[in-house]
Amino acid sequence: NKEKMFNLLAVAMVLLVSAVFNYVNLTVALAGKRAKEIATRRLLGDSVWQVVGRSLAESFLFTSVSFLLGCLVAVWCKEWFQELLSRKFDLVPNSLTIGVALGLIVAVSLLAGLIPAVIVSRFKPIDVMKGSFRQQNKMWLSRVFIVAQGVICTVPLALALTMSAQIHHLSTLPLGYNTKNLLLVSLSDFDFKAAKAEPIYNRLKSLPQVKRVGWIETEPWTDLPTSFGVAEEGTDGRVVQVCVTEIDQDCMDMFGFEVVEQYCEPGDGMFWLTESAKRKFNVSKERPYINEVGYNQYDKTYIVKSEIRFPVCGVVKDFRTSATPRDASKYENVIQINEKAPASSYIMLELDGQSGTDGNALKSIKAVCNEVAMEVTGAKRNVSVMTVEGILDGRLSRFRDTRKVVLGFMFLSLLISALGMLAMSVSYTEQQSKQIALRKVMGATVEGAAWELSRPFLLLSLLSSVIAVPISIKGMREYLEPFYYRIDFPWWVLVVAVLISLSVAVLSVLWQTLSVARRNPVESIRTE
To answer: How far is the C-alpha of 95 from the C-alpha of 528, rounded, in Å?
Structure first.
């Protein structure tokens, strides 16, 4: 599935960028601690390029070890990915994958190691050895990366919450017809022939747990539109796109469509229109029909055939065809009564309330179907038997899979952001330990000192939230836009995403800042 693969690749790339930010952040922060080491190497004869090369080599080693650990995680998560992609695969490397992997390791190593290498190459050994070197505390590069990580943390969190709310809405939204205790038996194993399908129909009908049985060609959740016309005097007419549910009267009763108007007794080939379709077709008791539509191959237009009419027997209440993103405003729903067994694709049966559609009932029905299939075809068959509720739930599976990817990304981005903030807080608070010690000597409280240390990180987190909110709004709207049955824009999601992101930032730096703030001022000053 290209969509799933694209989503996974996008997640991997963004996580990789976030990880590179972290590496650069930490190596730049630690550069001051390594200033004497680098100065000593320069005084002993190392050139600038040797210092740069050593920094890049460290980056390459770190990336290679991370890649090997990542391979182990990939093997460990193989079954989860197979389930997510609905496909089995082998993690066996070949020359192409090895080449791509090596290329990525080198590229990531250069991206991660280049900025730290440039910074350390600018250290002047004489300044370091004389003690006149002071690491700049502006941390402008680190601030940029912290803000970027905050954005990467907040945006997927908002998207994941939006996806969860939308999927919950679709799974609980009333369909307008019954789905409980209904099973579909595929007739593809019977070659769609009435002579072969009749035995399974009769056998299922005789089972004690089966309440009713019917023939069905296309289901109410079909996404295959067709065209019917409205003939109007003085014009060529107009065309209405519809999704046709083809079922017999027994299935009509099983689905329990609510009849609003009835013009005549339903018969084979007659149509039931929804309330919305009735308005589009201008159908009434005095005008109970719709027209056939032809297609002109030359100019690729539809032509309404006013002389060919299909009778309409009544109107049912509006119902939903699908939970998937589809512009339902372009299509209307109609039901055609089809009593012809040879044209059917499925047999639908309704189990009694006591049997339900649990695993045992489904297993026993499938065993009967396989037995009859063996009798009528002379070959062993594995007949497909599905619950209607399971089919409709399965139609949401790709959206759940996307949500799983985003949720996984969300947790990883939260973890990376928390680790990055923690590491930066360790480096920054150590740099500021002398200043905090002097403040405490002058009478500052532990809480005041902790706030002074935490404030830069919290301000950066607030800035990242301000940047992330418009990006999140755009992403949330683009996700919700294809859904016809979508939720109102969930503004609460933005509040929750920002609060969680800020909470992660606070918890990541709080314990370290408190640790430094509670330290004995004498120790910090003596260490300096």
So the answer is: 54
